[in-house]
Amino acid sequence: MKKLTKLGLLAVIMLIAVMLLTGCGQQGEEQKKDELEGLAVYTEEETSDYTTFTEMAGVELKYPSNYKSIGKSTQPMFMDPDVTGASFNLVSDNFPSALTFEGYVEASLPGIKSQMTIKDDNINVEYINLNGRKAAKLDYVASSQGQTMALTQILIKKDNKAYVLTLASSEADKDAVSEKFDKIIKSFK
Fold first, then answer.
1. For residues 62 and 49, is the Cβ–Cβ distance under 8 A?
2. Backbone angles phi, psi at 75, to 5 degrees
3. Residue 107 CB neighbours (<10 A)
4. What's the pLDDT tens digit per position in 153-162?
5. Which of 112, 73, 116 is nearest to 91 (CA)?
6. How far is CA 164 from each of CA 19, 23, 120, 135, rounded to the nearest angstrom?
7. Residue-level pLDDT at 71
8. Percent of the chain beyond pLDDT 70?
9. Domain boundary assignment for the chain
10. Fold of 40-187
11. Residue 132, Ramachandran bin (φ over 0: left; ψ between -120 and 50: alpha; else beta)
């Protein structure tokens, strides 16, 4: 009798767990749709002359085939051979469990400002729908070591990892690389 009671109790606990997980999964899907509503949509474009980067587990992006790799697979960095100083890199880290995605973005801003001088102390933060995933797009102009750079950073959370794609060029060359950089960003997933 005691064994039947334990089995019955275990069955009830399992049933409750399944109901909670099922309910949370549905709520998560609704929340995901809601959090993407109203955001600017970035979707991958056709890029026949681009190379696909898949060496970092969990993400993929495409970049112009003529870009030169100057990093390593764990810290990839690529340079544009046609525009001096134009480059992009990708880093990842474990996502802090105590923060929301928005909290993570907000917590990143002081760190950026401590590393370089931000023009007008202005980092423009825009939340976007990047291939069906909420992302943050940070745009700013910064000076460091006598150089003035235009930077765009894309932050995403995927599978408990934070990924940061940083695209940089001289402020003067921002327009020259904008189309390439936009395609790189739109391919990031």
1. no
2. -140, 70
3. 11
4. 999 999 899 9
5. 73
6. 35, 31, 23, 10
7. 86
8. 83
9. 1-37, 40-187
10. Protein Transport Mog1p; Chain A (3.40.1000)
11. left
Residue whose tokens read 């990047």: 130
pLDDT digits (tens, 9 = 90+) for 27-47: 344 446 678 999 999 999 888
Q: Do 116 and 144 touch, CB atoms closer than 8 A?
A: yes
Query: How far is 168 from 182, CA to CA, in rounded Å?
Result: 12
Token pair belonging to 159: 């599978």
Minimal CA–CA distance to 59: which of 109, 131, 137, 125? 131
User: Which tokens sit at 171?
Assistant: 């402020």
**28 near 22, Cβ under 8 Å?**
no
Distance CA 108, CA 46 (A): 32
Phi/psi at 50 (5° precision): -115, 155
Instruction: Give the chain's end-to-end CA distance (angstroms, integer).
Output: 55
- Summarize pLDDT for 98-127 with one digit per residue, the tens: 999 999 999 999 999 999 999 999 999 999
Query: pTM of the predicted model, to two decimals?
Result: 0.81
Model confidence pLDDT, tens digit, residues 47-81: 889 999 998 888 999 999 999 999 887 789 999 99
CA distances from 179 to 38, 47, 94, 151, 161 (A): 24, 12, 31, 14, 28
Give the position of tokens 């940089």. 168
